[in-house]
Amino acid sequence: MKLKKILAAVAAAAVAVSAMAVNAFAADEYTAKLGFADTAWAVQDWEASTTVTGDGTYTIESTAVAGNADFGVFVIDIEGMFAAAPEATAVLDKIEIDGQEFSFKADKIVYGDIEEKGNYRIEIYNTYGTTLDDPGVNTATQIGESLKLTFTVSGLGGAEAAAPADDAADAPADAPAADTTTTSEGTGNAPIAVMVSVMAVAGAAAVASKKRK
Predict the structure, then answer these.
(1) What pLDDT sits at residue 137?
(2) Which of 6, 105, 191, 213 could form a disulfide with 206 if both were Cys (CB 3.0 to 4.6 A apart)?
(3) Which secondary-structure segment (H or E) carries 200?
(4) What is the pLDDT of residue 168?
(5) pLDDT of residue 160
């Protein structure tokens, strides 16, 4: 009976720790959408999007904005992220227009729940926002074919987003294979793995001890 109690306790603890490990890696999903319109509202895109699954770097691309005259509204909204995870943040890394990097002043980009709707906004420029009087981009810029935005999310945990496919294509042919192992710092996953291993060893030792008796 004593052995059964030991094994039952080990099994219950292992299940509990496994659940903790799953929760440590789990992250909610959020839709990050482009919000774009020129000042005449003739060219718009409110649909281009990507799915944020945790900490990592993401991109949104749009061809619907081609032919704009200037920037009127130029934002990214990560829907519901501020309400669900107010400690999480996102930072704009790069703007590319027609395949060329487009310069911006990083300290002029505005972040947060700007409209108080629970969304996390990256406001690059907004005629109706605080960036109207202090823009970080040349608002008279036109887009000939395409727009690509790259941003990094932190504070959600979970698996990092996969690198864009074009990054892999640029790697030299003789380059070593990329390490695909995902690490999540500060989640306590390593201690959890150790605990599971210790429990398994303890259970095996208990069985061996019982057989010797």
Answers:
(1) 98
(2) 6
(3) helix 189-212
(4) 42
(5) 53
The reported pTM is: 0.65
For the chain, residues with pLDDT lower than 70 are 1-27, 159-213
State whether 11 and 91 are in the same domain: no
Scanning 33-176, the segments in alpha helix (DSSP H) are 81-84, 165-169
The CA-atom distances, in angstroms, between 18 and each of 3, 14, 60, 158, 199 are 22, 6, 35, 15, 12
Q: Which of 19, 75, 20, 78 is nearest to 54 (CA)?
A: 78
Rounded Cα–Cα distance for residues 119 and 80 (Å): 5
Residue at 207 is within a domain: yes
Same domain for 6 and 94, yes or no, is no
* Structure token digits, residue 202: 């303890």
The reply to whether 66 falls in a domain is: yes
